[in-house]
Give the backbone structure.
Amino acid sequence: MLVGILIIGNEVLDGLTLDTNSNWLARRLIPLGAKIKTRITVRDELNAISWAIHQLMGGGCDVIFVSGGLGPTHDDMTLQGLAQALDVELELNPQALAIVERQYQWLHERGLVDTPEITDPRKKMAKLPEGTIPLDNRVGGAPGVLVERKNRLIIALPGVPAEFKAIYETEVEQLLLKKHSRSYSEVVIEREVKDESMIAPLIDQLMTQFPNLWVKSLPPAYGTSNKIRFWFSLSSDEEGSETLRKIINRAIETFDELLKSTNPGK
Amino acid sequence: MLVGILIIGNEVLDGLTLDTNSNWLARRLIPLGAKIKTRITVRDELNAISWAIHQLMGGGCDVIFVSGGLGPTHDDMTLQGLAQALDVELELNPQALAIVERQYQWLHERGLVDTPEITDPRKKMAKLPEGTIPLDNRVGGAPGVLVERKNRLIIALPGVPAEFKAIYETEVEQLLLKKHSRSYSEVVIEREVKDESMIAPLIDQLMTQFPNLWVKSLPPAYGTSNKIRFWFSLSSDEEGSETLRKIINRAIETFDELLKSTNPGK
């Protein structure tokens, strides 16, 4: 399962808002066997959104997540951008409208909005691209959207992190479990080593010895510490994650022996 | 000045590391009149890096920043990816080598590395794409890289935030000031409003009244607060930033009047 992520919002590109949805999502998807291929972040512009969806679809992503731009204001253009990318029209979706109505009714009953009336900006959130399916949102006004096209699944969720996470958990994760195909295991360790450049040949040696193993050194700021984190990860179509974990543990043992022989004083 | 940002690293895509360089950079570039157009994040893979550079060059970006992948280990592929994108070879750059040598000498004198010798992994950091210029790095081992091609400036910096920031500040910002063309001003305010959907037509009205003004509502998590942040921003080729600031202040006054008339109880 190759995954593409599209983040929409001027506030993210302009550095006002830190995109934490992508990292949260990756941490949830990788244990399901997903590989995150590309992430694209674009402005609130129709052509930019449509371009990015095309890039991710063309780039071989099986699942494309879109975050942001589903709200009621002028800058919320995801539904229109998705419609443009899919070459379909927007239409009022009765199920989506029912979700929007229920949510504003709920807010109204609690005195959080003045009226439960479905004004035009609220109705906008229920105008989905033809052929797409709304995803229920119980923690916000805007439904998510799901569509399958050319064997690719596109899932658009609101950018507010609480909504993004809740809809993923209640509406999306179960769907993806069906696509679950690969096992995955990873371990991050920290070791005292003076210098990343000294470790490079050692990592090369380890990766030759353990095929498919990915080892990445994550160095601290220069001169601030002599502890480097090492991230070991391994995925497989055949082996279970228990087996992968055992292989990683063996690799770490080998790594520590190699370290010791390079760095006998430690 | 249209800017593209390329972030390289499995650890970012896989959610182990939060990319904070992009936001920091945007906050520095926007006051210089830059518009951040697109950000692409890719894995440590040669073709992915080269593809992304092509996308950003083809997408009309005047300046392309690349973060990460300049270090000594196997997964550091930015120089090779950049060479592939520019269709040139890597060559040992004497100036870059001098930087690497000086840095390891410095570390060695302080007992932070065992040897100042330029081993192969260290030498790798000085093998730059033909026709590129090294950017001095006094807070890490890997030089940055600068190249101008087809009227586009490509600037590659190490991903470790302390190094990314230091090289930007000492080596890059001055260069960009020469390209400075547009003025920019922005203000973020917070207002008590019950509901974003109610505000949508009001923002539309404001943006009609103040041409070029961009107003974006940044809502909190649903039901957690009735305070919404509003981001007002404006850029111009003709007016100075003082004038832009005054226009924004007038727009905020108008906004508050509109709010009051919609929300008389507040």
Summary: Chain B has two domains: 2-177, 183-262. Chain B has a mean pLDDT of 92. The two ends of chain B are 42 Å apart (CA to CA). Residues 183-262 of chain B form a domain with the Alpha-Beta Plaits fold (CATH 3.30.70.600).
